[in-house]
Amino acid sequence: MSLQFKVRLTEELHEKLKNYADAKGNSLNTEILQRLADSVVEDEKYEPISADSAKQKAADSRQLVLEDIRRLCYFEINRVAQLGGQHAHISLKKYELYSYTDEAWEEAITPIVKELKDKGFDVNENDVSEDGFGIRF
């Protein structure tokens, strides 16, 4: 489960974060979440953690990744459509999905592919990999 809340940023900080996000190909939301997560991980670096806790953290993070990939799909579809194209490529490399178990992979990607197909987009499931996939419309 993820929560939403508003944060006030100075224009200067907002611009810096946006520039960092753009340079990495991230959304501003992903950039801020990653930086917050990194700071918490750094604080917890030397604290012992159980396997169950690690699994729960991974499950919680997968939900955030799923939402970010979903937003990325629609962003790319809109961007390509505005340029007159009919094929968007979704790069998934930054999410390091190769580290997912098969079950976690299915849990993360299958709902997105199904949603896109339900909306009339053509996604070849055989071409979906941890590197990315194409969407035709």
UniProtKB/TrEMBL annotation:
GO terms for biological process: regulation of DNA-templated transcription. The lineage of its organism: Bacteria, Pseudomonadati, Pseudomonadota, Gammaproteobacteria, Vibrionales. Residues 4-40 form the Arc-like DNA binding domain. It comes from Grimontia marina. This is Arc-like DNA binding domain protein. Pfam families: Arc. GO terms for molecular function: DNA binding.
